[in-house]
Design goal:
Aldehyde Oxidoreductase, domain 4, 3-stranded antiparallel beta sheet, 22% strand
């Protein structure tokens, strides 16, 4: 049997820019805070983030995940949004024709210092990642990430 100390969070950004944050843990009453955290880190309205605690549709049943509420959830969510931002930066580089390293995340978009108005938001990049544009070498389509963690 798997070590039941592990928990997971999974964040999927749909082509519309709406997001689903799935948790292995049961509701702890902090779901609105988690939605605000994701929204703040990814530059979207909190209402665009749906939080699904104990998401058995995503994680299944009987896989050994610890379902008790977790004090480490916020840090795991931050790790997951960081992974989303890292992939989004690569996508923004290809989408804008700029070097990904020259793009900066500010005001909810990746843009160059020379042309901040041409920035790409997470919603723009989610649509791009789901098939409207070329992908960087070695990068899969879609815009999602997961963090498995332990308190």
């Amino acid at each position: 049997m798997a070590d039941e100390a592990y928990r997971a969070v999974f964040l999927r950004v749909h082509p519309t820019g709406k997001m689903v944050l799935s948790l292995t843990t049961e509701s702890d009453g902090h779901e609105a805070e988690y939605a605000r955290q994701v929204a703040g880190e990814l530059g979207v309205p909190a209402l665009d983030v749906k939080v699904v605690p104990a998401d058995t549709d995503r994680f299944g049943v009987g896989h050994g995940f610890n379902t008790s509420p977790s004090p480490g959830a916020a840090a795991a969510i931050a790790s997951t949004t960081g992974k989303i931002l890292a992939k989004a930066q690569l996508l923004a580089g290809v989408a804008t024709g700029a070097s990904a390293e020259n793009l900066r995340w500010r005001d909810g978009a990746f843009a160059t210092a020379e042309d901040p108005a041409a920035g790409k938001t997470i919603a723009d990049l989610a649509m791009y990642a789901h098939g409207t544009g070329a992908l960087p070498p070695g990068v899969e389509g879609g815009l999602d990430a997961q963090t498995v963690y332990r308190d």
